[in-house]
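TA notes, week 10

Several of you asked for a full example with nothing omitted. So below is the full record: structure tokens for the whole chain, then the designed sequence directly under it. When grading your own attempts, check the secondary structure regions first.
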């Protein structure tokens, strides 16, 4: 596997983990939602749920039309299997998870069922899940999946229950996941909960002070953090501080930010079953990426591997490094002489918000071979019904990573997802060759005309046109 594919795989896995952790709850009979967290953290992060479940207050939610009315049923001792890459068993490590565990125990007693947490190795996961569905013998009742092999492939074969009629409670279920990300032919086939974590830029506050630059946080506070000010900041940081004729500080560690730029301008390379390269918003993105390279704004590679940008940043002479907030601990550990901050990716000309791109979201699904999906969804919702001790999803995690309130707020700002299909969904798409052409300074219009046909062919292969 080449380095670029390895990077894509790692990013995809992190996003799936997030989704699974962000879902209806930090961990357990709660899984998918969407972002960049390691599975152990995701599974233990209660703030990810902030949702719903059975509580000791029988009158709770009586006036909330979005909550599913109380149901009375007996599952006859059935074992509900919950499948994922790591165990989703609910830990008792904080007040939220303790309440979720109590909700589950109460539900098991009331509705006469048991729960088994099934873990399948990530390397075998997709093949085992898909094979079990095709054979009509699903590996579980709730299965964590990624969109790339689920929509349209599994949904189009009628292997999954549409569950959108059971996800009306938006305190538990993220409408974006069901009604957009996991939608096929007008129905929603998967669910998740509030999203956690974000990608953006780590930046070196110490370097900013040394260079006498305007603090980056001021751009965010002024609502003026956009592509234009971003380029301005890079130019200011690209300096020859010792007058030897060579740059010795740089503004940007790498220009490999295509997905983030697409999200920031609210566009994508594809739209469902069509290529989207010549969409005006997409063209703006490609011209922006091209500018980073043709104007030599990016710190030039020294022949390193895919970890080179992070190594550049760790040297302390590069201002901005694109990554997810999950990397904060490692960076701070390696850069003890520097103060590190976090800021969202800047808004594009058509951007209305800060975003984290999600090119392969995860979700929970229920196989069509499984009986009584309405009961299963009811149980999930009731497990996740509780009053969280946290102010927002991810709070305890963010506060463990950052001690600066602005950085924490920036992660929250950037945690909103912009989901779109890419290489994960269309494995034949020449994504890297396309991006390389842009980075080498090839005319954007030429690149678009060259790649429209192969992009469409890759899409048609999946949609079997």
């Amino acid at each position: 596997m080449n380095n670029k594919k390895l990077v894509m795989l790692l990013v995809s896995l992190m996003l799936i983990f997030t989704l699974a952790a962000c879902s209806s709850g930090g961990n357990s009979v709660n899984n998918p939602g969407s972002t960049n967290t390691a599975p152990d953290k995701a599974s233990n992060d209660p703030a990810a749920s902030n949702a719903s479940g059975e509580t000791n207050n029988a009158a709770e939610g009586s006036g909330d039309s979005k909550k599913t009315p109380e149901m009375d049923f007996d599952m006859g001792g059935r074992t509900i299997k919950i499948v994922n890459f790591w165990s989703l068993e609910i830990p008792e490590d904080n007040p939220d998870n303790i309440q979720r565990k109590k909700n589950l125990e109460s539900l098991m007693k009331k509705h006469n069922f048991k729960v088994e947490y099934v873990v399948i190795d990530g390397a075998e996961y997709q093949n085992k899940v898909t094979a079990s569905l095709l054979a009509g013998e699903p590996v579980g009742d709730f299965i964590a999946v990624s969109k790339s092999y689920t929509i349209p492939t599994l949904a189009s074969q009628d292997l999954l229950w549409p569950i959108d009629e059971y996800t009306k409670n938006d305190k538990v279920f993220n409408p974006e996941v069901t009604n957009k990300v996991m939608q096929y032919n007008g129905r929603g086939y998967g669910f998740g909960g509030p999203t956690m974590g974000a990608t953006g830029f780590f930046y070196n506050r110490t370097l900013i002070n040394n260079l006498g630059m305007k603090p980056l946080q001021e751009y965010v506070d002024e609502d003026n953090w956009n592509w234009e000010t971003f380029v301005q900041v890079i130019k200011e940081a690209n300096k020859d501080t010792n007058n030897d004729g060579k740059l010795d500080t740089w503004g940007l560690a790498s220009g490999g930010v295509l997905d983030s730029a697409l999200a920031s301008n609210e566009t994508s390379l594809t739209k469902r079953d069509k290529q989207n390269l010549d969409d005006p918003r997409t063209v703006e993105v490609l011209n922006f990426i091209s500018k980073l390279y043709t104007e030599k704004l990016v710190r030039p590679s020294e022949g390193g591997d895919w970890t080179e940008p992070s190594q550049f940043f760790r040297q302390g002479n590069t201002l901005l490094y694109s990554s997810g907030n999950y990397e904060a601990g490692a960076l701070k550990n390696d850069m003890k002489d520097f103060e590190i901050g976090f800021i969202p990716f800047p808004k594009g000309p058509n951007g209305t918000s800060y975003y984290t791109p999600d090119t392969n979201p995860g979700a929970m699904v229920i196989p069509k071979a499984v009986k009584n999906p309405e009961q299963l969804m009811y149980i999930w919702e009731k497990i996740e019904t509780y009053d969280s001790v946290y102010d927002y999803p991810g709070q305890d995690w963010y506060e463990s990573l950052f001690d600066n309130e602005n950085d924490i707020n920036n992660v929250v700002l950037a945690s909103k997802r912009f989901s779109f299909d890419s290489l994960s969904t269309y494995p034949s798409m020449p994504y890297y060759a396309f991006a390389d052409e842009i980075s080498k300074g090839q005319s954007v219009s030429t690149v678009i005309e060259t790649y429209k046909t192969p992009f469409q062919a890759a899409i048609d292969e999946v949609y079997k046109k």
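DSSP finds 18 helices and 14 strands in the chain. Use that as a sanity check on your answer.
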